[in-house]
Specification:
The longest helix has 19 residues. This protein starts with a strand and ends in a 13-residue tail after the last strand. α1 packs antiparallel against α2 and α2 runs antiparallel to α3. It is 31% helix and 27% strand. Strands 1-2-3-5-4 form a 5-stranded antiparallel sheet. It is globular, with a radius of gyration of 15 Å. It is built from 3 helices and 5 strands, in the order βααββαββ. The chain is of the alpha+beta class.
């Protein structure tokens, strides 16, 4: 098995791309040995959906694309990042605003913490950012070596 596996896709910042990003990550995880319907796969699917939605909705047209990176490191840690070129980093909205929206990062933080993972944000060279989650690869998942994605 390889020590490090990676897959990546760049999509247009369009609402239809959210479902495409979700399916892409689901397919990659399945190829790497994580069956659909497991707690980890379901959590990652929702996290990717929320991060991709943020990349589309909150960049205000200033990021024509977003990129989803999926990495499996030593069969121990699954890292998923969504990169856009908008300079504003995610933040929690005030409670009053959260009545209708603004729960995406709360959901992402909760799911990540619940799985024993971490959330981080890192700057990109072009002034944008990548929002990363890192989750432990589930015990018993085979972490198969995948072909080129």
């Amino acid at each position: 098995m390889a020590d490090h596996q990676e897959a990546s896709v760049t999509l247009p910042s369009d609402p239809a791309s959210v479902a495409t990003a979700r399916r892409y990550v689901e397919d990659v995880l399945l190829e790497w040995g994580l069956p659909v319907g497991t707690d980890t796969a379901d959590s990652v699917r929702l996290i990717v959906s929320e991060l991709a939605t943020n990349a589309v909705q909150h960049t205000f047209g200033q990021s024509p694309t977003f990129t989803v990176d999926v990495r499996l490191e030593r069969g121990e840690w699954l890292r998923v990042g969504v990169t856009d070129s908008h300079p504003r980093w995610p933040r929690r909205l005030p409670a009053a605003v959260q009545q209708d929206n603004g729960r995406g990062m709360v959901i992402i933080r909760w799911l990540t913490a619940e799985a024993g993972g971490r959330l981080s944000v890192s700057p990109t060279e072009d002034g944008g950012k990548t929002v990363w989650i890192a989750l432990p690869w589930p015990a018993g998942a085979p972490a198969r070596t995948a072909g080129t994605c």
